[in-house]
Amino acid sequence: MKKQEQNSASASELLAMERTKLANIRTLLAYIRTSLAFFAASAALIQFFDKNVKLEITAYISITFGVILLIIGFIHYYRSNKWIKVINRLK
C-alpha cells in the first residue's frame, strides 16, 4: 500500500514539475508576444504618422520598451529554468 502511495506521489510530483516547466515557457511566450505588440505599434506609428514628431518619438520609446521587455522575459526564463533544474536535483 505504501509503495503505491509513493509511486502516485512521485508521479504527481513529476507532473507538477512538468506543469511548472510549461508555465515557464508560456510566460516567456507572453513576454515575446507583448514585445512584438510594442514593435508592431511603433511600426504603425512610424509608417502612418511620419510627419508628427511627437508620435515618432512615442514610437521610438515603444521600440525601446519592447526591447527591454524582451530582455526581461529572457532573463526571467533563464533564471526560472535554473531554479527548476536545482529543485529537480534536490529530489
Overview of this structure, please?
It holds the Pfam family DUF202. It is found in: Endomembrane system. Residues 19-82 form the DUF202 domain. Keywords: Membrane, Transmembrane, Transmembrane helix. This is DUF202 domain-containing protein. This protein has 91 residues and is an all-alpha fold. The protein has one domain (2-90). It is 93% helix and 0% strand. It has helices at residues 2-48, 53-90. Helix 1 (2-48) runs antiparallel to helix 2. It is rod-shaped. The model has no long low-confidence stretch (mean pLDDT 90).
**Taking all residues together, what is the mean pLDDT?**
90
Q: What overall form do the CA principal axes indicate?
A: rod-shaped
Number of domains: 1
Number of helices: 2
Q: Strand-residue fraction?
A: under 5%
User: Which bin fits the share of residues in helices?
Assistant: over 70%
Pairing-aware structural class of the strands and helices? mainly alpha
Order of helices and strands: HH
Radius of gyration (CA) equals: 21 Å
Largest sheet entry:
none
From the N-terminal CA to the C-terminal CA, the straight-line distance is 22 Å
Pfam families: DUF202
Protein name: DUF202 domain-containing protein
Organism: Heyndrickxia camelliae
Keywords: Membrane, Transmembrane, Transmembrane helix
